[in-house]
Known about the structure:
It is a single chain. This protein has 15 helices and 14 strands. It is of the alpha/beta class. It folds into two domains: 4-259, 3-Layer(aba) Sandwich (Peroxisomal Thiolase, Chain A, domain 1); 263-419, Thiolase/Chalcone synthase (Peroxisomal Thiolase, Chain A, domain 1). α4 (74-89) runs parallel beside α7, α8 packs across α14 and α11 (282-296) packs across α12 (316-327).
Amino acid sequence: MTRVVITGLGVCSPNGTNLESFEQALISGTSGIRFQPQLRKLKFSCQIAGNPHIENINLNTYFTKVQQRGLNSSGLVYGMIAGQDAWRHAGMLPASAEKPDWDSGVVFGTGILGVDKFREAIHRIDEGETRRLGSSSVIQTMASGISAYLGGTLGLGNQVTTNSSACTTGTESLIMGFERIRSGRAKRMLVGSCSDSGPYVWGGFDAMRILPSTYNERPTEASRPMSASAAGFVPGSGAGALVLESLESALERGAPIYGEVKGGAINSGGQRGDGSMTAPNSEAVQHCIRMALKDAGVSGTELDAINGHLTATTKDSLEVLNWTKALGIAGSDFPLINSFKGHVGHCLAAAGSIECVATVMQLYRQMVFGNVNCGDIHPEILSLIDAECIPTKSRETPLQTIAKASFGFGDVNACVIFSQYIA
């Protein structure tokens, strides 16, 4: 069976818009969650969020002059930055102008793409100015716009597609690309996901009253995964991207290898049992974790660390419980576990990919990044695992195998197993 390795990483996140700044923020526990004046003006209860600051990024590096005309899609911009950075990080160049690269493809997911472009278009149409919409309205607002932009910019001739599975999207895209390479249908796949910024994306969650409303003056303290004082998830946005490649191709190119994808699993709880549109079916979560381990040929006791979904809500304790049941491990024997929601908020469709990038960085650096705002671990969690399993500061530690999972609205799940590359 074809081995699949990671040869490139890219990120555009609330606390770092390139790999170096992102890594330093994760190590130091720096949050990218900020007060958003626009949300106060619009009378949101939660007036904080995490969004990438890209004002100093030269978009000429990522878009042609023609592509920049009428560009009004934050998720598309984030995805193009992360995706192209990952491709360059892997030592890859765009295909020649004459012929696509038949061996390389892209699976890049999103939730809502181009919501601000939609709003702009609706106003023009309502004002009878349809002809002034511009030629880019469709491609900036179709869900597959991000994969189409990346595929065309890089000249990718294999599968070019977009997936969408709520908060599971980014992790699912990685597993989809992994399976395509493992089956021999591609040599390289650019995988990842992106999410738009702004009130038209975040408003629905504010209306559901699942966002924290008491931290508007203290934004960096608001997202508190696994904490007794967790008050809801903080919305975020951005993009993460990884280049997956067959080991044979990577060695042939002399490419850097940052880790190996050992296996993964995707499933749904069918909104049965304790599952619903907004809550996970615990049995399905446990089944997904077990199937990922089986696919990877790894036992639960071999996991050195876990990067959970852990959104800083009341469901965090249930997630840890599901991990203990799926692995059959609890107490002091439980792996180290962390969440990056305290650093960047919950980046929705981009969450899985941004967190996959961070998880691979942990593996490559042999370091577990600390949990932010987790000084008061929830007592229900402490009844399951020891406090030492939840690091609050980053620390170097031997890491061979890490699990990363995402669970999304619609009762959908994805879990991937990464390992250190060994020849």
